């Protein structure tokens, strides 16, 4: 599963493009403390813990746990 340190996210979308399961996207409704739409996961049950999203994130927002 993945968790986000949401207020560090700058909404660049790199994590969403890197996810092979297509379960990461930018929130369309919520904003974080920086005023960006933060990344979120739609279904942690589909996550295969590959870590691609965390590796590509330039701001170390994402934590992957098995
Ligand atoms: S760990 Fe892999 S499958 Fe899970 S959300 Fe990140 S990129 Fe997607
Ligand atoms: S790659 Fe990091 S900073 Fe960019 S949208 Fe994803 S979590 Fe946010």
Explain this structure.
It is a single chain. This protein is α+β, with helices and mostly antiparallel strands. Helices cover 15% and strands 18% of the residues. The strands form two sheets. Strands 1-4 form a two-stranded antiparallel ribbon. Strands 2-3 form a two-stranded antiparallel ribbon. The longest helix is centred in the N-terminal third of the chain and has 5 residues, at 14-18. The protein starts with a strand and ends with a strand. The model has no long low-confidence stretch (mean pLDDT 97).
Task: Describe the structure using short key phrases.
two-stranded antiparallel ribbon; about 15% helix; globular; alpha+beta; single chain; two-stranded antiparallel sheet; about 70 residues; binds iron/sulfur cluster; about 20% strand; 2 helices
Nearest-angstrom radius of gyration? 11 Å
Which ranges are low-confidence, i.e. pLDDT below 50, for 5 or more consecutive residues? none
Element string (H = helix, E = strand): EHEEHE
Tell me which ligands are bound.
iron/sulfur cluster
Summarize the main sheet.
2 strands, antiparallel
Shape: globular
On the 0 to 100 scale, the average pLDDT is 97
In DSSP terms (H or I, runs of 4 or more residues), the helix count works out at 2
**Strand composition percent:** 15-25%
Secondary-structure-based class equals alpha+beta
Could you tell me the number of beta strands? 4
Instruction: Kindly report how far apart the N and C termini lie.
Output: 6 Å
Please bin the fraction of helical residues.
10-25%
Give the neighbour order of strands across the main sheet: 1-4
